[in-house]
Amino acid sequence: MIIRNSKELGAVIRKARLSKKLRQTELARKASMRQALISDLENGTGSATLDTILKILAALDLDISIVPRKKAEFDPTEY
Amino acid sequence: MIIRNSKELGAVIRKARLSKKLRQTELARKASMRQALISDLENGTGSATLDTILKILAALDLDISIVPRKKAEFDPTEY
DNA sequence: TCAATATATACGACTAATCGTATAAATCCT
DNA sequence: AGGATTTATACGATTAGTCGTATATATTGA
Question: How many other C-beta atoms are found inside a 10 Å radius of the C-beta of residue A2?
Answer without folding.
Answer: 13
